């Protein structure tokens, strides 16, 4: 008898115990089916972000957020932007990268384990970060509204502010970095790219690099001294965050990758080949130079001008705006030259790409719209029909939104426009960054990501979309909502910015914040009505999109996906704690002796900061290193955050040590006991399978394991 997980038509091996490894198809259908978990988690984040967009524009809530200072910023900027851009955007991009790379490189994704781990860490981190920001923003904002200084409120929270944010940020960062490692290991050297459309991989590689750099910057920016620097330096700090940070994450990390994926998906959806591939390749290099130059220029200007501001404010009684103006004067022509120069280069790169895509849509369908050569295991896409052509409209809308956003971006970096908007405070923020981000991020990237899902999900899940009508409904709602919201932000921003300038000119003693409050009052109900009204369309569009996704997966599919998430996590943990053969012992006495050594090593090494040494000693190096780096990074964050940074702001304070001690030693004891118990259960070498009748042979075909009865020895 043969015990088979799938098919049993494999030949019986010639020896009694033999492993047969066959070449695996590049396209692994079973692996790709698991990518739906990324899309399902992304949809939930999109709906949460859309609903928050409505709630935070309701007049009493909006007024409270305006008055909450940086506490309101945690809610409106950090929480919502991360749940939409990371929770929805990055998870969608991650799954699509995993789907696309085997098809353009003719090689499988490097590691299923890294794929699964990146999912768990990213989802846990981004959703934890979202709710932590909401809770901490509410607490700190309430303190500010009641007259308590923000710094005092943050110090009062102490460890309850530092630890949750640090843990959530670290989890999110680890998820990103595991994803980056998987992509880098898959792409490797461009000389090994053998797929017919391998040139697209450079967009994915650059997008991955952008996300990696963006997460490193984001991780650094949540450290207190960085938060204080950005907050205290006003417009100089804003060049670092959100402007530079958003451009690296969204423009390089998301938009560049989306540009490359357009070259793959549009021909398959429309039957039209890319209009001019040499021009497309040229646009890649122009955009890459512009993006990295713009990012590095903003970081440099923000640091230089910010430090000049802090130095000026130490020696003179100056407001933040006055110090910033003096810092810009000291930097001179470089302030505008760097921003405008690299911004123009970036714009030329995008406009070249937009031209290629527009001309592609204008061209006629052809039989050879995409390479006829397919990688092993892939199937040719069906002939384009009205449904696939409608999905292509999502990419057309992406390009159109990108055109509008880049034109606005070039206009608003002109010196007189920048100064006029910055001088109006939150009124100017409605135009930039709010309206600009709405068009460049939510529209240009959002529509493209939805187009990716509409193409990929039915192919990896094996079922057509539950409703083509809902695809059209969601598209219409989101187009109307984003268009209204963008125009509302521009119109209200222009009106209220002009009013702020008029009020401040009429009464120089009036602060910009007071002038903005008066401007909102003068505009009246229209300020809130149009912002809420337009966000309702966006949220309904997201809900329609989410309904279609979950209806396509079906109740059973969704339930199976959740079960598979748990089982995959259990399998990963099982593999991680398995003892390598060379560390296994033959006798029980050796096993017990080694187990005692494992416990002592983990206990004492953990107490001096080397948690994971016992796991390493017992033959689980990967798990031991994972624990060590997680522990080390978490401890460094905690100590640097609370001890070094808080001491710089508030003076020496070691009160954080006492509540941290139970956690510190508790984790060490748990890790030592776990390492010992798992070694006792897995550290004994199993006896060899006896030869003769009944011996089993393992046959590995691809990812499929079959166990068959080996042939008995022939009689002499």
Large-scale geometry: globular
**DSSP, total strands:** 4
Question: How helix-rich are the residues, as a percent range?
Answer: over 70%
Uncertain parts:
1-24, 644-650, 691-716
**Strand content of the residues, in percent?**
under 5%
| Rg of Cα set | 28 Å
User: What profile does the largest beta sheet have?
Assistant: 4 strands, mixed
Separate helix tally: 23
The N- to C-terminal Cα distance equals 24 Å
Q: Structural class given helices, strands, pairing?
A: mainly alpha
Helix and strand element order:
EEHHHHHHHHHHHHHHHHHHHHHHHEE
Q: List the strand order in the largest sheet.
A: 1-4-3-2
- Kindly state the mean pLDDT as a whole number? 81
Question: Outline of this structure?
Answer:
With 716 residues, the protein is mainly α. Helices cover 76% and strands 3% of the residues.
Describe the structure.
The chain has 716 residues and is mostly helical. The protein has helices at 29-33, 36-55, 59-67, 70-105, 112-145, 150-157, 159-187, 201-221, 224-232, 235-270, 277-315, 320-331, 333-362, 386-412, 415-422, 426-461, 468-506, 512-523, 525-576, 588-607, 613-617, 621-650, 657-682; strands at residues 2-4, 19-21, 696-701, 704-709. Helix 14 (386-412) runs parallel beside helix 17. The model is unreliable at 1-24, 644-650 and 691-716 (pLDDT under 50).
List keywords for this structure.
716 residues; mainly alpha; 4-stranded mixed sheet; 23 helices; 76% helix; globular; disordered N terminus
Set out the fold topology.
Blueprint: E1 2-4, E2 19-21, H1 29-33, H2 36-55, H3 59-67, H4 70-105, H5 112-145, H6 150-157, H7 159-187, H8 201-221, H9 224-232, H10 235-270, H11 277-315, H12 320-331, H13 333-362, H14 386-412, H15 415-422, H16 426-461, H17 468-506, H18 512-523, H19 525-576, H20 588-607, H21 613-617, H22 621-650, H23 657-682, E3 696-701, E4 704-709
Parallel strand pairs: 2-3
Antiparallel strand pairs: 1-4, 3-4
Helix pairs in contact: 2-4, 2-19, 3-4, 4-5, 4-7, 4-10, 4-16, 5-7, 7-8, 7-22, 8-10, 9-10, 10-11, 10-14, 10-16, 11-12, 11-13, 13-14, 14-16, 14-17, 16-17, 16-19, 17-18, 17-19, 20-23
